[in-house]
Design a protein that fits this description.
Number of helices: 10
Radius of gyration: 19 Å
Order of helices and strands: HHHEHHEEHEEHEEHEEEEHEEH
Strand content: 15-25%
Helix content: 10-25%
Shape: globular
Distance between the termini: 28 Å
Bound molecules: the ligand Nc1nc2c(c(=O)[nH]1)N[C@H]1C(S)=C(S)[C@@H](COP(=O)(O)O)O[C@H]1N2, molybdenum atom
Protein backbone atom coordinates (compact mmCIF):
# COMPACT_ATOMS: atom_id res chain seq x y z
CA UNK A 1 0.00 0.00 0.00
CA UNK A 2 2.84 2.37 0.80
CA UNK A 3 4.04 2.47 -2.84
CA UNK A 4 0.79 3.72 -4.33
CA UNK A 5 1.35 6.27 -7.07
CA UNK A 6 -0.94 9.18 -6.42
CA UNK A 7 -2.60 10.83 -9.40
CA UNK A 8 -1.41 14.42 -9.56
CA UNK A 9 -4.93 15.79 -9.72
CA UNK A 10 -5.63 14.30 -6.33
CA UNK A 11 -2.84 16.21 -4.63
CA UNK A 12 -3.53 19.61 -6.10
CA UNK A 13 -6.94 20.30 -4.57
CA UNK A 14 -5.48 19.93 -1.05
CA UNK A 15 -3.76 23.26 -1.62
CA UNK A 16 -6.19 25.02 -3.95
CA UNK A 17 -8.00 27.39 -1.68
CA UNK A 18 -8.23 30.84 -3.21
CA UNK A 19 -10.84 30.39 -5.97
CA UNK A 20 -13.31 28.86 -3.53
CA UNK A 21 -13.07 31.77 -1.12
CA UNK A 22 -14.44 34.07 -3.79
CA UNK A 23 -17.32 31.68 -4.46
CA UNK A 24 -18.10 31.39 -0.77
CA UNK A 25 -18.28 35.11 -0.23
CA UNK A 26 -21.09 35.18 -2.73
CA UNK A 27 -22.95 32.51 -0.77
CA UNK A 28 -22.46 34.51 2.42
CA UNK A 29 -23.89 37.57 0.69
CA UNK A 30 -27.09 35.70 -0.17
CA UNK A 31 -27.41 34.47 3.40
CA UNK A 32 -27.02 37.94 4.82
CA UNK A 33 -29.77 39.24 2.60
CA UNK A 34 -32.00 36.51 4.00
CA UNK A 35 -32.74 34.96 0.63
CA UNK A 36 -33.82 31.39 1.17
CA UNK A 37 -36.35 30.69 -1.54
CA UNK A 38 -36.73 31.57 -5.18
CA UNK A 39 -39.48 34.12 -4.44
CA UNK A 40 -37.21 36.60 -2.74
CA UNK A 41 -35.08 36.74 -5.84
CA UNK A 42 -37.49 38.88 -7.79
CA UNK A 43 -35.80 41.70 -5.92
CA UNK A 44 -32.89 41.20 -8.28
CA UNK A 45 -32.85 41.00 -12.03
CA UNK A 46 -29.34 39.91 -12.88
CA UNK A 47 -28.39 36.48 -14.14
CA UNK A 48 -25.90 36.15 -11.28
CA UNK A 49 -28.85 36.19 -8.92
CA UNK A 50 -30.72 33.61 -10.96
CA UNK A 51 -27.73 31.34 -10.50
CA UNK A 52 -27.70 32.05 -6.79
CA UNK A 53 -31.38 31.14 -6.49
CA UNK A 54 -30.53 27.76 -7.98
CA UNK A 55 -27.92 27.28 -5.29
CA UNK A 56 -30.37 28.30 -2.56
CA UNK A 57 -32.91 25.76 -3.84
CA UNK A 58 -30.35 22.97 -4.11
CA UNK A 59 -29.11 23.63 -0.61
CA UNK A 60 -32.57 23.16 0.86
CA UNK A 61 -32.47 19.34 1.02
CA UNK A 62 -29.46 19.62 3.26
CA UNK A 63 -31.14 21.82 5.81
CA UNK A 64 -31.76 19.01 8.22
CA UNK A 65 -34.05 18.65 11.24
CA UNK A 66 -33.37 20.73 14.35
CA UNK A 67 -31.38 19.03 17.10
CA UNK A 68 -31.47 20.44 20.61
CA UNK A 69 -28.49 20.32 22.93
CA UNK A 70 -27.44 22.42 25.86
CA UNK A 71 -24.52 24.70 25.15
CA UNK A 72 -21.42 23.85 27.15
CA UNK A 73 -20.08 27.33 27.99
CA UNK A 74 -16.68 25.90 28.83
CA UNK A 75 -16.01 25.47 25.14
CA UNK A 76 -16.26 28.71 23.28
CA UNK A 77 -13.86 30.92 21.37
CA UNK A 78 -13.41 34.66 20.95
CA UNK A 79 -13.07 34.50 17.19
CA UNK A 80 -16.22 35.12 15.13
CA UNK A 81 -18.33 32.07 14.31
CA UNK A 82 -18.30 30.97 10.65
CA UNK A 83 -21.66 31.34 8.88
CA UNK A 84 -23.55 28.07 8.49
CA UNK A 85 -23.89 28.47 4.72
CA UNK A 86 -20.13 28.94 4.39
CA UNK A 87 -19.26 25.83 6.42
CA UNK A 88 -21.94 23.80 4.59
CA UNK A 89 -20.62 24.64 1.11
CA UNK A 90 -16.85 24.28 1.63
CA UNK A 91 -16.03 20.72 2.59
CA UNK A 92 -13.48 17.97 2.28
CA UNK A 93 -15.13 14.62 1.65
CA UNK A 94 -12.91 12.87 -0.88
CA UNK A 95 -15.21 9.87 -1.19
CA UNK A 96 -17.46 12.13 -3.27
CA UNK A 97 -15.19 14.69 -4.93
CA UNK A 98 -12.02 16.66 -4.41
CA UNK A 99 -13.85 19.89 -5.31
CA UNK A 100 -14.69 21.43 -1.94
CA UNK A 101 -17.36 23.81 -3.13
CA UNK A 102 -19.41 21.01 -4.72
CA UNK A 103 -19.41 18.34 -1.99
CA UNK A 104 -22.76 19.59 -0.62
CA UNK A 105 -24.38 18.89 -4.02
CA UNK A 106 -22.67 15.57 -4.70
CA UNK A 107 -23.86 13.89 -1.51
CA UNK A 108 -27.40 13.77 -2.86
CA UNK A 109 -27.61 9.94 -3.08
CA UNK A 110 -25.91 9.46 0.28
CA UNK A 111 -28.45 7.88 2.69
CA UNK A 112 -27.26 8.44 6.24
CA UNK A 113 -30.16 6.70 8.00
CA UNK A 114 -30.73 3.98 9.08
CA UNK A 115 -27.06 3.62 10.07
CA UNK A 116 -25.27 1.12 12.26
CA UNK A 117 -22.02 1.63 14.08
CA UNK A 118 -19.94 -1.28 15.34
CA UNK A 119 -17.65 -1.01 18.36
CA UNK A 120 -15.28 -3.95 18.52
CA UNK A 121 -11.77 -5.19 19.23
CA UNK A 122 -10.16 -4.98 22.65
CA UNK A 123 -13.29 -4.13 24.64
CA UNK A 124 -15.22 -6.01 27.32
CA UNK A 125 -18.58 -5.25 25.73
CA UNK A 126 -18.45 -5.15 21.92
CA UNK A 127 -21.67 -3.84 20.41
CA UNK A 128 -23.40 -2.81 17.21
CA UNK A 129 -25.82 0.06 17.62
CA UNK A 130 -28.26 1.98 15.50
CA UNK A 131 -26.91 5.53 15.44
CA UNK A 132 -30.16 7.06 16.71
CA UNK A 133 -30.30 4.59 19.61
CA UNK A 134 -26.74 5.55 20.44
CA UNK A 135 -27.54 9.27 20.30
CA UNK A 136 -30.44 8.75 22.73
CA UNK A 137 -28.11 7.14 25.26
CA UNK A 138 -25.36 9.73 25.07
CA UNK A 139 -25.06 13.13 26.84
CA UNK A 140 -25.47 15.56 23.91
CA UNK A 141 -24.05 19.05 24.23
CA UNK A 142 -23.12 21.95 21.98
CA UNK A 143 -19.51 23.12 21.84
CA UNK A 144 -18.02 25.89 19.78
CA UNK A 145 -14.61 24.78 18.53
CA UNK A 146 -11.92 26.13 16.29
CA UNK A 147 -11.27 23.83 13.34
CA UNK A 148 -8.05 23.88 11.31
CA UNK A 149 -7.49 22.00 8.05
CA UNK A 150 -3.91 21.07 7.15
CA UNK A 151 -4.42 23.10 3.94
CA UNK A 152 -4.44 26.30 6.11
CA UNK A 153 -8.15 27.09 6.04
CA UNK A 154 -9.95 27.39 9.36
CA UNK A 155 -13.44 27.86 10.75
CA UNK A 156 -15.29 28.27 14.04
CA UNK A 157 -18.46 26.17 14.29
CA UNK A 158 -20.92 24.97 16.95
CA UNK A 159 -20.82 21.17 16.94
CA UNK A 160 -23.39 19.01 18.73
CA UNK A 161 -22.14 15.70 20.05
CA UNK A 162 -20.88 13.76 23.02
CA UNK A 163 -17.41 13.02 24.38
CA UNK A 164 -15.94 9.88 22.82
CA UNK A 165 -15.01 8.98 26.39
CA UNK A 166 -18.71 8.41 27.19
CA UNK A 167 -18.94 5.73 24.49
CA UNK A 168 -15.63 4.11 25.42
CA UNK A 169 -16.68 3.87 29.06
CA UNK A 170 -19.77 2.02 27.90
CA UNK A 171 -17.84 -0.62 25.95
CA UNK A 172 -14.99 -0.81 28.51
CA UNK A 173 -11.59 -0.96 26.81
CA UNK A 174 -9.43 -3.91 27.92
CA UNK A 175 -6.12 -3.15 29.62
CA UNK A 176 -4.10 -3.96 26.47
CA UNK A 177 -6.09 -1.52 24.25
CA UNK A 178 -3.76 1.30 23.14
CA UNK A 179 -5.32 2.77 20.00
CA UNK A 180 -8.73 3.53 18.52
CA UNK A 181 -9.16 2.82 14.81
CA UNK A 182 -12.16 4.39 13.05
CA UNK A 183 -13.47 3.53 9.59
CA UNK A 184 -15.77 5.39 7.16
CA UNK A 185 -18.54 3.68 5.15
CA UNK A 186 -17.66 2.01 1.83
CA UNK A 187 -20.17 2.32 -1.02
CA UNK A 188 -18.71 3.21 -4.43
CA UNK A 189 -22.20 3.38 -6.00
CA UNK A 190 -22.94 6.36 -3.78
CA UNK A 191 -19.45 7.78 -3.35
CA UNK A 192 -17.85 7.70 -6.81
CA UNK A 193 -14.24 8.43 -5.80
CA UNK A 194 -14.24 5.12 -3.95
CA UNK A 195 -14.03 3.57 -7.42
CA UNK A 196 -10.46 4.87 -7.57
CA UNK A 197 -8.75 1.64 -6.61
CA UNK A 198 -5.35 3.34 -6.33
CA UNK A 199 -6.52 4.96 -3.10
CA UNK A 200 -6.73 2.91 0.09
CA UNK A 201 -10.50 3.10 0.68
CA UNK A 202 -12.27 3.03 3.02
CA UNK A 203 -10.98 6.14 4.84
CA UNK A 204 -9.45 5.11 8.17
CA UNK A 205 -8.24 7.29 11.03
CA UNK A 206 -6.89 6.63 14.47
CA UNK A 207 -6.07 8.07 17.87
CA UNK A 208 -4.16 6.83 20.88
CA UNK A 209 -6.51 5.68 23.61
CA UNK A 210 -5.38 8.66 25.75
CA UNK A 211 -6.30 11.05 22.92
CA UNK A 212 -9.65 9.34 22.44
CA UNK A 213 -10.37 9.63 26.18
CA UNK A 214 -9.46 13.34 26.28
CA UNK A 215 -12.36 15.57 27.19
CA UNK A 216 -12.04 17.56 23.93
CA UNK A 217 -12.53 14.52 21.68
CA UNK A 218 -16.10 14.60 20.40
CA UNK A 219 -18.28 12.28 18.40
CA UNK A 220 -20.42 14.74 16.48
CA UNK A 221 -23.99 14.24 15.29
CA UNK A 222 -25.11 17.83 14.76
CA UNK A 223 -24.01 21.32 13.77
CA UNK A 224 -25.62 24.79 14.08
CA UNK A 225 -28.57 23.37 15.99
CA UNK A 226 -29.35 20.80 13.26
CA UNK A 227 -28.80 17.10 12.64
CA UNK A 228 -25.43 16.83 10.89
CA UNK A 229 -25.96 17.24 7.13
CA UNK A 230 -24.34 14.66 4.82
CA UNK A 231 -21.51 16.89 3.59
CA UNK A 232 -20.24 17.33 7.17
CA UNK A 233 -20.03 13.54 7.67
CA UNK A 234 -23.49 12.43 8.79
CA UNK A 235 -24.71 10.67 10.74
CA UNK A 236 -21.68 10.57 13.06
CA UNK A 237 -18.13 11.89 12.74
CA UNK A 238 -15.14 12.62 14.90
CA UNK A 239 -13.89 16.08 15.91
CA UNK A 240 -10.42 16.44 17.44
CA UNK A 241 -9.92 20.22 17.44
CA UNK A 242 -6.19 20.29 18.29
CA UNK A 243 -5.31 18.16 15.26
CA UNK A 244 -5.42 18.92 11.54
CA UNK A 245 -8.86 18.36 10.03
CA UNK A 246 -8.05 15.13 8.20
CA UNK A 247 -7.96 13.34 11.58
CA UNK A 248 -11.65 14.23 12.09
CA UNK A 249 -13.04 11.25 10.16
CA UNK A 250 -16.57 11.47 8.76
CA UNK A 251 -19.48 9.03 8.50
CA UNK A 252 -18.04 6.41 10.85
CA UNK A 253 -19.27 2.80 10.64
CA UNK A 254 -16.71 1.14 12.88
CA UNK A 255 -14.69 1.92 15.99
CA UNK A 256 -12.13 -0.72 16.88
CA UNK A 257 -9.84 -0.79 19.91
CA UNK A 258 -6.42 -2.26 19.11
CA UNK A 259 -2.95 -2.69 20.54
CA UNK A 260 -1.28 -1.65 17.25
CA UNK A 261 -1.00 1.84 15.80
CA UNK A 262 -3.42 1.84 12.85
CA UNK A 263 -2.34 2.83 9.34
CA UNK A 264 -4.42 5.83 8.34
CA UNK A 265 -5.74 6.99 4.96
CA UNK A 266 -3.58 10.06 4.24
CA UNK A 267 -0.58 8.54 5.98
CA UNK A 268 -0.71 5.54 3.62
CA UNK A 269 -1.00 7.84 0.59
CA UNK A 270 1.61 10.47 1.48
CA UNK A 271 3.50 9.38 4.59
CA UNK A 272 6.01 12.23 4.47
CA UNK A 273 3.21 14.81 4.46
CA UNK A 274 0.54 13.44 6.79
CA UNK A 275 1.60 11.83 10.06
CA UNK A 276 -0.39 9.83 12.57
CA UNK A 277 -0.17 12.50 15.28
CA UNK A 278 -0.94 15.54 13.09
CA UNK A 279 -1.20 18.10 15.88
CA UNK A 280 -1.66 21.70 14.69
CA UNK A 281 1.75 23.35 14.91
CA UNK A 282 2.77 26.68 13.33
CA UNK A 283 6.46 25.78 13.66
CA UNK A 284 6.37 22.62 11.55
CA UNK A 285 5.69 23.51 7.91
CA UNK A 286 3.93 21.06 5.64
CA UNK A 287 6.54 19.92 3.04
CA UNK A 288 4.72 22.00 0.41
CA UNK A 289 3.53 25.06 2.38
CA UNK A 290 3.92 27.02 5.61
CA UNK A 291 1.63 26.40 8.58
CA UNK A 292 2.46 29.75 10.24
CA UNK A 293 -0.90 31.36 9.44
CA UNK A 294 -4.46 30.32 8.63
CA UNK A 295 -7.43 31.98 6.91
CA UNK A 296 -11.04 31.90 8.00
CA UNK A 297 -13.29 30.52 5.24
CA UNK A 298 -15.86 32.99 3.94
CA UNK A 299 -13.70 35.96 4.87
CA UNK A 300 -10.41 37.70 4.27
CA UNK A 301 -9.32 37.21 7.87
CA UNK A 302 -5.91 35.69 8.38
CA UNK A 303 -4.52 34.77 11.79
CA UNK A 304 -1.34 33.29 13.18
CA UNK A 305 -1.71 29.54 13.69
CA UNK A 306 -1.78 28.54 17.35
CA UNK A 307 0.10 25.55 18.73
CA UNK A 308 -2.41 22.71 19.28
CA UNK A 309 -4.88 25.07 17.58
CA UNK A 310 -5.20 26.92 20.89
CA UNK A 311 -6.03 23.80 22.95
CA UNK A 312 -2.62 23.30 24.58
CA UNK A 313 -3.97 23.59 28.13
CA UNK A 314 -6.13 20.52 27.56
CA UNK A 315 -3.76 18.38 25.48
CA UNK A 316 -0.09 19.44 25.70
CA UNK A 317 0.47 16.97 28.57
CA UNK A 318 -0.25 14.11 26.14
CA UNK A 319 2.96 14.78 24.16
N1 LIG B 1 -14.32 10.04 5.50
C1 LIG B 1 -13.71 11.22 5.36
N2 LIG B 1 -13.52 11.98 6.45
C2 LIG B 1 -12.92 13.19 6.34
C3 LIG B 1 -12.42 13.64 5.08
C4 LIG B 1 -12.66 12.82 3.95
O1 LIG B 1 -12.28 13.14 2.81
N3 LIG B 1 -13.31 11.62 4.12
N4 LIG B 1 -11.76 14.84 4.98
C5 LIG B 1 -11.13 15.34 6.21
C6 LIG B 1 -10.62 16.69 6.08
S1 LIG B 1 -9.19 16.87 5.18
C7 LIG B 1 -11.22 17.77 6.68
S2 LIG B 1 -10.50 19.29 6.65
C8 LIG B 1 -12.53 17.64 7.36
C9 LIG B 1 -13.54 18.61 6.75
O2 LIG B 1 -14.74 18.61 7.49
P1 LIG B 1 -15.97 19.55 7.02
O3 LIG B 1 -16.18 19.32 5.56
O4 LIG B 1 -17.12 19.14 7.85
O5 LIG B 1 -15.53 20.97 7.29
O6 LIG B 1 -13.06 16.30 7.27
C10 LIG B 1 -12.10 15.27 7.40
N5 LIG B 1 -12.77 13.98 7.44
MO1 LIG C 1 -8.34 18.93 5.77
Amino acid sequence: MANIKIPKGWEIPENQVTPESVYINRRKFIKELGIVGAGALSLFGSSACAQDSKVAKQLKPYQTQPLDAKKNEEFTVTRKQTDEIVAATYNNFYEFTSSKSTVWRRVEKFKTRPWEIEISGLVEKPMTLDVDDLIKQMPLEERIYRFRCVETWAMVVPWIGFPMKALLEKVQPKSDAKYVRMTTFMDPDVAPHQNNFRLPWPYVEGLTLAEAMNDLTLLVVGIYGHILPPQHGAPIRLIVPWKYGFKSIKSIVSIELTDKKPRTFWNIILPREYGFEANVNPNVPHPRWSQATEWMIGSRERHPTLIYNGYGDAVAHLY
